[in-house]
Specification:
- This protein is an alpha+beta fold.
- α3 runs parallel beside α4.
- It is rod-shaped and about 170 Å long.
- 20% of the residues lie in helices and 28% in strands.
- The strands form 4 sheets. Strands 3-4-5-6-7-8 form a 6-stranded mixed sheet, with no helix packed on it.
- Among the domains are: 38 residues, no CATH class; 70 residues, no CATH class; 39 residues, no CATH class; 111 residues, Sandwich (Jelly Rolls).
Length: 376
């Protein structure tokens, strides 16, 4: 009785029971040859099986997008499918699923060295590459190990790796020179900051340590300001803390008034065509003073002019004053101005004239305050 082979389903006659049957070329030879031709790969010119001619097993063929295939089973993935590692390759795919979790495994069809895997759990992960050899830019583990091997270090040291600096931040063109520039920049910055802070900061401190020094000084300044009646905190800006120093009350600040802090009746004549200093008074308290002086001219003809002005520490400070007499008539005028001085400042009285005859002077110098203070 005839039977069929289990793998290729070839037709076999039993010589014991079918020996008397007429030989049929179609059923006994041709059909078997067609099955062999269909089910097996063709042999190439080198005598080896050509994998491109291998018949596909009974698999589900994927179409469109690989992301939609989440059902357990075996698949054939032709080229051009979306979301494959490389859509120019074809693959065999095995899908495993367990509730919301899905695992896709791709095997290279033409190139059996390709092996990829990814997972789905609400979203697809990136493809993990387990391929052997380089295929379409994929590097094998062997090649990776060779890349980081000790004997490959010269090819991968800092000076051999170029830097693409599209924004032109560096003058160097490789990693080594760029790192050197970065170090120099950072070290110079630390040195400059440390020199401004002063002790205990040093150029060897880290940026974190320098920051701590600055914050400590700010905290100390805020504490001292608070002790002087200016509520402050170390979290305020440095400028804000410094500005508060000017608002500290010393308890003895001068204010303007009509008490004579200083007064004299000395006459200071002048013949100078340019300003000359005729009197200096050093003030021992800070505050705003009322400064008073008189300019005087004799009644000579032609008319003359005399100018007077307050200077502070050798620099013009008050308003320039002047008087001009009428021919043959003398003239005296009193000038008053409120001006602020720091402790130790000099209040100076300067005068000049364009006249050549008679009296030309500054006199009756007075410095007034709101209360009686001592000049010494």
């Amino acid at each position: 009785m005839p039977e069929n082979t289990p793998n290729l389903d070839l037709y076999l006659k039993n010589p014991v029971t079918d020996g008397a049957d007429t030989f049929n070329i179609e059923t006994m030879l041709n059909e078997n040859f067609r099955k062999i031709d269909e089910k097996t790969a063709r042999v190439g010119v080198d005598g080896k099986l050509d994998p491109t001619q291998r018949a596909e097993p009974a698999l589900i063929t994927v179409a469109g997008d690989l992301n939609t295939y989440k059902t357990k089973g075996s698949y054939y993935v032709p080229t051009g499918i979306l979301n494959t590692p490389f859509d120019t390759n074809s693959y065999y795919m095995q899908v495993y699923s367990d509730g919301p979790l899905v695992l896709q495994i791709l095997y290279g069809r033409v190139n059996p060295n390709l092996l990829f895997m990814r997972r789905f759990n609400s979203t697809w992960s990136e493809w993990d590459n387990y391929s052997k050899g380089i295929t379409n830019g994929i590097t094998s583990r062997d090649e990776f190990d060779a890349h980081k091997a000790d004997d490959a270090i010269d090819a991968h040291n800092a000076k051999s790796i170029s830097v693409v600096d599209v924004n032109a931040h560096f003058t160097g063109t490789n990693v080594e020179t760029v790192l050197e520039e970065l170090f120099t920049f950072a070290n110079s910055g630390k040195t400059d900051i440390a020199s401004v802070i002063g002790s205990p900061a040093t150029s060897g401190d880290t940026f974190t340590q320098l920051k701590t020094h600055i914050q400590t000084s700010k905290n100390d300044l805020a504490t001292n300001l608070t002790a002087k009646g200016q509520t402050s905190a170390g979290t305020e800006t440095l400028d804000a803390l410094v500005d508060k120093v000017l608002t500290i009350s010393t308890g003895s600040e001068i204010t303007t008034g009509e008490f004579n802090f200083y007064s004299e009746a000395v006459l200071y004549d002048t013949t100078s065509l340019t300003y000359e200093k005729r009197r200096t008074v050093t003030l021992n308290l800070m505050g705003t003073y009322r400064i008073e002086f008189s300019l005087e001219l004799a009644g000579f003809n032609p008319p003359q002019t005399v100018w007077g002005r307050i200077y502070k520490n050798g620099v013009p400070y008050g308003i320039e004053r002047s008087i001009t007499n009428v021919a043959g008539t003398g003239l005296t005028t009193i000038f008053t101005e409120d001006l602020y001085f720091e402790e130790g400042d000099t209040c100076e009285f300067w005068v000049k004239t364009n006249g050549t005859v008679g009296t030309r002077r500054i006199k009756n110098i007075k410095i007034k305050t709101s209360a009686i203070y001592s000049l010494s």
